[in-house]
């Protein structure tokens, strides 16, 4: 079973015609075909992904700051 892009543009196994220039043209066509397959998130999805990322980073940052403070106090206690 082949997709419409594979049947109209050629498959990945196709030997490019025209040598080096043909390889460049084939590569650009394949890049464009792959970019057409990309599903872009909606505004609401993007907003929820951004909020989730910011919350995750805040939690991770709090953990690192807490671990750093713990190590500072531990080193201070050992060497003081």
From TrEMBL:
Protein's membrane topology: Single-pass membrane protein
Tagged with keyword Transmembrane: yes
Gene3D superfamilies per record: Preprotein translocase secy subunit (1.20.5.1030)
Keywords from the UniProt entry: Cell membrane, Membrane, Protein transport, Translocation, Transmembrane, Transmembrane helix, Transport
Compartments (UniProt record): Cell membrane; Membrane
Quaternary organization: Component of the Sec protein translocase complex. Heterotrimer consisting of SecY, SecE and SecG subunits. The heterotrimers can form oligomers, although 1 heterotrimer is thought to be able to translocate proteins. Interacts with the ribosome. Interacts with SecDF, and other proteins may be involved. Interacts with SecA.
Entry function: Essential subunit of the Sec protein translocation channel SecYEG. Clamps together the 2 halves of SecY. May contact the channel plug during translocation.
Protein family according to the UniProt entry: Belongs to the SecE/SEC61-gamma family.
Protein known as: Protein translocase subunit SecE
Higher taxonomy: Bacteria, Bacillati, Actinomycetota, Actinomycetes, Micrococcales
Gene responsible for this protein: secE
């Amino acid at each position: 079973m082949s997709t419409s892009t594979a049947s109209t543009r050629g498959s990945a196994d196709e030997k490019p015609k025209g040598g080096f220039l043909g390889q460049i043209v084939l590569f650009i066509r394949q890049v464009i075909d792959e970019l057409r397959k990309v599903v872009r998130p909606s505004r609401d999805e993007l907003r929820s992904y951004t909020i989730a990322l910011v919350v995750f980073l805040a939690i991770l940052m709090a953990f690192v700051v807490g671990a750093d403070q713990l190590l500072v106090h531990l080193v201070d206690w050992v060497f003081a």
